[in-house]
Amino acid sequence: MESKLNPTAITEKVCMLTWILRKGDLVLKDQMLFGVQHSSNKIDCFVCSFCYRFISSIEHQIGRKLYLQNLGVSTNHECDEGTTSVVAKDWNGSDSSDDEGYSDMVDCQNLGECASSSSVKIPLPMEVVQSLMHEELVLPYSTEFPQPSVIPCRGGCSESYYCSKLCMEADWEMFHSLLCTGTESKSRRKEAMLAFIEHANATNDIFLLAAKAIVSTILMYRKLKAAKLKEQEKYACSEVSDDCDYHMLLEAWKPISMGYKRRWWDCMALPDDVDSCDEAAFRLQIRQLAFTSVELLKEAIFDKECELLFSLEIYGNLIGMFELNNLDLVVASPVEDYFLYVNELPESEKKKAEQVTKPFLNALGDDYSDCCQGTAFFPLQSCMNHSCLPNAKAFKREQDRDGQATIIALRSIHKGEEITISYIDEDLPLEERQASLADYGFSCKCPKCSEEQQ
Ligand SMILES: C[S@@+](CC[C@H](N)C(=O)[O-])C[C@H]1O[C@@H](n2cnc3c(N)ncnc32)[C@H](O)[C@@H]1O
Predict the structure, then answer these.
(1) ipTM above threshold 0.90
(2) Does the beta carbon of 8 lie inside 6 Å of ligand 1?
(3) CA–CA separation, 10 vs 381, rounded Å?
(4) Quick one: which atom of ligand 1 is closest to the CA of 446?
(5) What sign for the dihedral angle of Cα 9, 11, 16, 21?
(6) Which of 258, 326, 382, 442 for a ligand 1 pocket mutation test, highest count of atoms within 8 Å of Cβ?
(7) Tens digits of residue pLDDT in 92-118
(8) Over pLDDT 70: what percentage of the chain?
(9) 269 Cβ below 6 A of ligand 1
């Protein structure tokens, strides 16, 4: 039965054009299916747990970050340690912790002359930081950067926050009702869910993406089944079964079936520090890690009718899909925009504003420009093949402030032409490009590689 859920890859090329695109045109915007913010980034950026827009005022964003910094919470930007359980006197003054993934890009500007002076952090007294965090202290011109206010999770957890009721409800319906650790959570065992999340944060947050894929399938399956039961009731059918309806499970699994899949422990590139003679042991270890993770998840949300989803084979393929297809999730910060705005004010206004803002910029150091970072799966982008001479690239424009992926044309693209992107730095020498692409399991035969190989 498992093979039924083991979808084949989409082999057609992405040629969706019916018109000509010119350089700089938007090719597509891709709505993410699943995303997670890196656990270490949760300290730096307070964002909507569904759409990843920044939430709360500029003051709260800065104050919260400095507060955590003052508490000694690590802001190590390498996504390493499990730091999700950071507890902060948050938004409404109550003790809480905030929640929560190929390379789309953000134009990173800097503050020019200000940057050098802000590279060394000069801490501020906690009272000042707290008054900023609680918005008792208002920064000049911050009203030019209005952000959505914070909507808490309806399940009562202190991990997920939203930019709107719409995002909160959509997350609840699609994922969070089963992943929530609050009082209204629909998971069987909240402690088990906490253990699963902790394990993912300590090892690989790709497990959190896999969990989202599984819960969204379960929740969709239940929805489809409920609709069928309702229909049966209408026609007074008495056949109500608790057995799995495989047809419906496949229907619920459909969005995920688009991604190219191989088992994680088979497709993962051997890290540089692992000797090739240790390869078999390494792959076994990775498999074991996935096994531990899926067992923890099973403990938290097992559903007999969706039993197939909890097999190591399906879990391994899901994580393999994210390994081969996942993209960096990057959303630019309004805090960076705010400081850039102040920096560009006419001299007299700038001088006056900086009397208030400078201590905060100095306390933040270079971290003033931290953007929201995570990992995500985008269904359309995941169907795009690589070329070292691509005709499109993922690029965030000024107006792209949410978690959607944006693909821009790098040159004119004609009707019927395959849209390609580069998975790697295409300016690298041929050998290095081929070595990097070996991680994706293929040898590139694009025109650039073919020419250089001659
Ligand atoms: C993100 S998927 C791209 C979509 C994939 N072709 C599919 O059918 O779903 C990445 C995988 O596609 C294949 N692929 C991508 N670009 C390729 C290329 N230029 N030549 C050969 N295979 C490629 C590799 O197997 C790679 O691991």
Answers:
(1) yes
(2) no
(3) 12
(4) 19
(5) positive
(6) 442
(7) 333 333 332 233 333 333 444 444 344
(8) 82
(9) no
pTM of the model: 0.80
How much is the pLDDT for 333?
92
Closest Cα partner for 150 from 93, 87, 92, 95?
Answer: 92
249 contacts 308 by C-beta, under 8 angstroms? yes
Give kind and range of the element (H or E) at residue 315: helix 312-325
Give me 369's structure tokens.
């420009």
User: Can you tell me the distance from the alpha carbon of 59 to that of 64, in angstroms, rounded to the nearest whole number?
Assistant: 8
In short, whether 309's Cβ falls inside 6 Å of ligand 1 is no
Q: How far is the CA of 434 from the centre of ligand 1 (A)?
A: 14
Ligand 1 atom closest to Cα of residue 12: 8
Strand order in the sheet with 26-30: 26-30, 405-409, 392-394
Mean pLDDT of the chain: 83
Integer Cα distance of 92 and 81 in angstroms: 27
Instruction: Supply the pLDDT for residue 58.
Output: 97
The Cα 8–Cα 160 span in angstroms is 34
Determine the atom of ligand 1 nearest the C-alpha atom of 267. Answer: 27
Indicate whether residue 257 lines ligand 1 (CB < 6 A): no
Cβ–ligand 1 distance for 321 under 6 Å, the answer: no
Gap between the Cα atoms of 401 and 378, Å rounded: 16
Stated as kind and residue range, the H or E segment containing 312 is helix 312-325
| Residue 299: alpha-carbon gap to chain centroid | 24
Atom of ligand 1 nearest to the CA of 13: 6
Residue 406 has pLDDT above 80, yes or no: yes
- Exposed e or buried b per residue across 307-325, where buried means at least 16 C-beta atoms within 10 angstroms of its C-beta: ebbbbbebbbbbbbbbbbb
13 lines ligand 1 (CB under 6 A): no
Atom of ligand 1 nearest to the CA of 258: 9
